[in-house]
């Protein structure tokens, strides 16, 4: 068959193959954008009052955004893979038709670019998947601590979660009652066996650092102390009374062994011990001051749209 006749057959075949290849993806994108536009246009919440932030609210928002990024990257990778497949099919027609080598470049260069871009999007999706795993772990940790805080209600505590401190940081939990104001930073880590003989489930706390089997953490204690100072200053301005905030670092699922005794500025403990620790504290604040603090924290944390 002459080269021109073979290429004409190739052109008519690709006219049907290319739309069939991209039709499902195009239909999906149209459906997603149409649904978003309709919900923004006609969707109204059943109530206008905002809700308190739930445990791990910031992590949940990041998780949703990261999952969307994974889907977008996978779709882009599939799209460029389909384009690469079309280039391969085109090259096979040209080779079968005996086309001159200069015609191959029309598809060889796009083929290489499509393969490269598809691989980059696939790598991006994989990195986002790993981030999703970390976010899920952190979210479950904050939910575990929130569950422990729920047990302190009988002792008169009121718990607030994910209190926004600034544009890019938040306080995981705050417990308020006549026994004081406690700031809780949750640190969730997977268990990994280290080179030292330390058990895989144990973290050693000496007042200055948290020694995990696979490494040392000094930043978490400083972060909790820094955030407690900020919260103390914030509540003092909102209520008009000096407020002492005690910082705690809570590690869900870990056995915390205290290697040295002392009245440390930041205390570390397991999530299961948290409720017992808070309930055992002496009463230090009058109920009227507690109510003012609760009002200030409620105002700060009530920003979730229904």
Task: Report what the structure shows.
The protein folds into 2 domains: 3-142, no CATH class; 151-304, no CATH class. It has helices at 3-42, 57-97, 101-150, 219-239, 271-279, 287-301; strands spanning 51-52, 158-164, 170-177, 180-186, 202-205, 210-212, 215-217, 245-251, 255-258, 267-270, 302-304. It is elongated, with a radius of gyration of 29 Å. It has 6 helices and 11 strands. The termini are far apart. Helix 1 (3-42) runs antiparallel to helix 2 (57-97), helix 2 (57-97) runs antiparallel to helix 3 and helix 3 runs parallel beside helix 5 (271-279).
Shape: elongated
Unreliable runs: 6-10
Strand content: 15-25%
Mean pLDDT: 87
Structural class: alpha/beta
Strand order of the largest sheet: 2-3-4-8-10
Roughly what percent helix? 55-70%
Q: With helices defined by DSSP (H or I, 4 residues minimum), what is the helix count?
A: 6
The end-to-end span amounts to: 67 Å
Number of strands: 11
Order of helices and strands: HEHHEEEEEEHEEEHHE
Rg over CA atoms, rounded to whole Å, is: 29 Å
Largest sheet: 5 strands, mixed
The count of domains is: 2
């Amino acid at each position: 068959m002459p080269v021109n006749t073979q290429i004409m057959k190739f052109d008519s075949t690709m006219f049907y193959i290319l739309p069939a290849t991209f039709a499902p993806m195009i239909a999906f994108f149209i459906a997603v954008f149409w649904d978003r536009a309709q919900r923004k246009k006609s969707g109204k919440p059943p109530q206008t009052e905002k809700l308190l932030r739930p445990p791990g609210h910031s992590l949940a928002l990041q998780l949703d955004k990261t999952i969307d990024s994974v889907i977008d990257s996978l779709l882009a990778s599939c799209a460029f893979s389909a384009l690469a497949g079309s280039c391969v099919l085109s090259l096979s027609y040209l080779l079968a038709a005996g086309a001159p080598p200069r015609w191959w470049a029309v598809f060889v260069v796009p083929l290489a670019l499509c393969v490269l871009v598809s691989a980059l999007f696939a790598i991006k999706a994989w990195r986002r998947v790993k981030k999703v795993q970390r976010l899920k772990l952190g979210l479950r940790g904050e939910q575990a601590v929130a569950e422990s805080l729920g047990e302190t209600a009988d002792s008169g505590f009121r718990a607030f979660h994910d209190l926004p401190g600034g544009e890019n940081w938040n306080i995981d939990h705050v417990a308020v009652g006549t026994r004081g104001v406690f700031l809780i930073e949750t640190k969730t880590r997977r268990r990994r066996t280290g080179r030292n003989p330390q058990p895989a489930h144990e973290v050693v706390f000496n007042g200055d650092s948290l020694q995990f089997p696979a490494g040392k953490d000094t930043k978490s204690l400083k972060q909790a102390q820094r955030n407690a100072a900020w919260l103390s200053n914030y509540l003092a301005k909102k209520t008009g009374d000096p407020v002492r905030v005690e910082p705690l670092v809570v590690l869900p699922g870990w056995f915390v062994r205290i290697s040295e005794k002392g009245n440390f500025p930041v205390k570390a403990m397991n999530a299961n011990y948290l409720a017992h620790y808070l309930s055992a504290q002496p009463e230090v604040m009058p109920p009227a001051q507690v109510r003012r603090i609760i009002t200030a924290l409620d105002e700060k944390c009530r920003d979730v749209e229904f």
